[in-house]
Amino acid sequence: LAGGIILGVALWLRHDSQTTNILYLQLGDKQAPNTFYVGIYILIAVGAVMMFVGFLGCYGAIQESQCLLGTFFTCLVILFACEVAAGIWGFVNKDQIAKDVKQFYDQAFQQALMAESETNNGRAVVKTFHETLDCCGPDNAIGAVTPLWRDDLCPKKDSVLKTIFETSSCHKKIDELFSGKLYLIGIAAIVVAVIMIFEMILSMVLCCGIRNSSVY
C-alpha cells in the first residue's frame, strides 16, 4: 500500500500540467532544465520496487521463510539507502532547480523583447510561462512595467488596474511552484522512510521468531 501511494504521488507530480508545460519547453536548441524530474523518477522507482518487495515480505511471512524475510530486509535496507541519498541530493539542489528554470525564462524573455524573436520561439516560450503560471515578467524593473508596454505577452485581465496590481512576477511564481512540489516530495520521502524503518524492525523480529520457534 505504501509503495502504491508513493507511486501514485510520483506519477501525479510527473504528469502535473504546470510542470510538464514548462519543463518540456525548448528555446531554440536549448531544452528547459528538467533536473526536477530526477527526484520524481527516483520516487517512481522506489514506489514500484516497494510494491514488489512488499509482496515478497507478505509471502515470506505467510510461508514463514527466513530466506524470503532476509531478502525482504536486505531490499528494504537498499531502498532506504537510495532514499536517503535522494533526499540529500534534493536538499542540496532545491534552490538550484528553481534558479535554472528562472535563468531559462529570463533568456526566453530577453529574446521575446528583441526583433529576432520571430526567428526563434522565445515569444512562444514566454507566453507559455505567463499563461501556465498566471504571471508576467521577471523580478526586476523591466518585469514590473512589462504588463503595460508589452501586454501582448501577458495574460489578459479585465482592466488596466487589475493588470498592474494582480500580475505577479514569474520569478516568484516559479519559486512557489517548485518549492511546493519539492515540499510534497519531502513529505512522501519522510513517510516512506518511517514505514521502511518499522518494516525492517518487524521483519527481523519475525525472522528471529521463526528461527527460535520450536517447530524448526
TrEMBL record:
Disulphide-bonded residues: C135-C170, C136-C154
Membrane-traversing stretches: 36-62, 68-92, 182-206
A GO-annotated cellular component: basolateral plasma membrane
Gene3D superfamilies assigned: Tetraspanin (1.10.1450.10)
Pfam family membership, one: Tetraspanin
InterPro entries in the cross-refs: Tetraspanin/Peripherin, Tetraspanin_animals, Tetraspanin_CS, Tetraspanin_EC2_sf
Domain of life: Eukaryota
Molecular function via GO: lipid binding
Subcellular location: Basolateral cell membrane; Membrane
PROSITE patterns: TM4_1
Entry's family note: Belongs to the tetraspanin (TM4SF) family.
Name recorded for this polypeptide: Tetraspanin
Gene that this polypeptide is encoded by: Cd81
